[in-house]
Design brief:
single chain; alpha/beta; Rossmann fold; 2 domains; three-stranded parallel β-sheet; about 10% strand
Length: about 300
């Protein structure tokens, strides 16, 4: 079960809104001091980042090694890029001009899961490994996909003389930033990559600033719950909610990856908040439907999140 970084930041912000009901607000003087400190730190950070970006500007021909261990030479700046994952769709639209993107993945315009649904409308073509022949016909100068893609499908494109860059599917915030900078370098947009990761840092820092005054014993306990399971140790969800000053009950129980939890386990964990997906693979499922199901299940009536209607 994978969630992209912007979605999880949005979740953290939603959780923050609930958390503020239980945490005292900071004094205005303290906020002003914090803002002044942040402004100084931001200015210093931008100077450092600009210097680093200027040192790492892509120069073509560019020799790179992708996450699959494949070495390749990208002869010139890619101007006909196909993205096969929603994550790379979102990253690319923050890195390069739309006219350099030949096609996005099939979920790009789905507002239920995509953060770039509106922007994606400006790029009409869609691509998927379910139609490799179509990708070959488009003759892109670069295809971007992740490590969840079947190796034999990647090889089929490479056999057709198409450059395929595979990035490692990130499972935490730092890994996500690394992938952004990695792709930025491959497409010749190092400076834009620096700006995008700085934006992410700013959003996360704002959440952390608001939550840092909360005592450990007052931290809310959160459960990621969806049709494909939950999120434990080693997942984006766990990393972000932990950074946001919350407790992931699945990780707290020592469970890794994306487990499917029994009702008994949920009752035992007793989360304060249950985070539900806004998008579902099965069209018969929905956010409201899942909320109603949880509320109607009498066996879960004692769970804090259900009892207090904190299902977000």
């Amino acid at each position: 079960m994978k969630r992209n970084i912007k979605t999880i930041i949005a979740i953290a912000i939603s959780v923050l809104m609930i958390t503020t009901l239980f945490a005292a607000c900071s004094k205005k003087v303290q906020q002003a001091q914090a803002n002044q400190t942040t402004q100084v730190q931001t200015a210093q950070t931008r100077t450092t980042e600009t210097e680093k970006a200027s040192e790492a500007v892509s120069a073509y021909p560019l020799k790179v090694t992708d996450a699959g261990g494949t070495e390749m030479t990208i002869e010139k700046e890619p101007v006909s890029i196909i993205s096969l994952t929603l994550g790379s769709d979102e990253m690319l639209l923050g890195l390069v001009d739309k006219n350099r993107i030949k096609a996005l993945c099939i979920y790009a315009e789905d507002a239920g899961i995509s953060n770039i649904a509106e922007e994606a409308k400006a790029i009409p073509e869609r691509a998927s490994m379910k139609s490799i022949e179509k990708i070959i016909e488009m003759q892109p100068d670069l295809v971007i996909t992740d490590t969840w893609t079947k190796p034999e499908e990647i090889q089929q494109l490479r056999d057709a003389k198409i450059t395929v860059y595979v990035f490692a599917t990130p499972n935490n915030y730092d890994a996500q930033k690394k992938v952004i900078m990695e792709l930025a370098h491959v497409v010749g947009a190092d400076e834009n990559g620096t700006e995008l990761t700085a934006w992410m840092d700013k959003k996360l820092k704002a959440i952390q600033e608001k939550l840092k005054s909360i005592k450990p014993e007052d931290k809310l306990r959160v459960l990621d719950y969806g049709e494909m399971g939950s999120s434990g140790i080693g997942t984006n969800f766990d990393d972000i909610v932990t950074r946001a000053g919350l407790i992931n009950v699945v990780a707290e129980a020592g469970i890794e990856g994306w487990p499917t939890l029994s009702k008994e386990k949920i009752i035992e964990m007793n989360p304060d908040i249950i985070v539900l997906p806004s998008w579902y693979y099965d069209s018969k499922n929905s956010l409201q439907g899942m909320k109603d199901t949880l509320k109607a299940d009498t066996s879960l009536a004692t769970v804090n999140a259900v009892k207090n209607d904190r299902l977000i």
